[in-house]
Amino acid sequence: MKRASIALVAAILAAPLLLPAQEGDAAAATGHPDVRRVLLVGAHPDDEDTNLIAWLQRGGRAHTAYLSLTRGDGGQNLIGNELGEELGIIRTEELLAARRVDGAHQFFSRAYDFGYSKSAEETYAHWPKDSLLNDVVTVVRAWRPHVIVAMFSGTPRDGHGHHQVSAILARAAYDAAGDTLRFPVRDFGPAWTPLKFYRTARFDTTQATLKVNVGEYDEGLRRSYAEIAGESLSQHKSQGFGRLQRRGVVWNYVSRVATRVNEGTPAASETSMFDGIAAAGVTGPGVSADSVAPHIFLDAFADRRDVAAGDTARVVATLYNRSRRTLYVTPEHTEGVAPRSAHRGVPVLPDSSFTWVLSLRGTTITQPWWLTSPRNGDLFAPPLPRLADAANWRGMPENERSRGHVVAVAVRLDSLGPVSLVREAPVVYRFLDPVRGDVQRPIAVTPTISVALDNSFELARANVDIDRFVNVTLRSAVTKPQPLRVSLSLPAGLTADSISRTVTLDSAGTRRMTFRIRGRLAPGVHTVSASASAGEQTYASGYIPIDYEHITPQRLYRPASVQLRAVEVQVPAGTNLAYVQGVGDKVAISLQQLGIPVTVIRASDIPTVDLSKFSAVVTGPRAYDAHRELIDNNTYLLDYARGGGTLVVQYGQYEMMRPGVMPYPVSISRPHDRVTEETAPIRILDASTPVLNRPNRVTGADFEGWVQERGLYMPRTFDERYRPVLETNDPGAPPNRGGIIVAPYGRGTYVYTTLAFFRQLPAGVGGAAKLFVNLVTQGAQ
Question: Mean pLDDT across the stretch 526-542?
Answer without folding.
Answer: 96
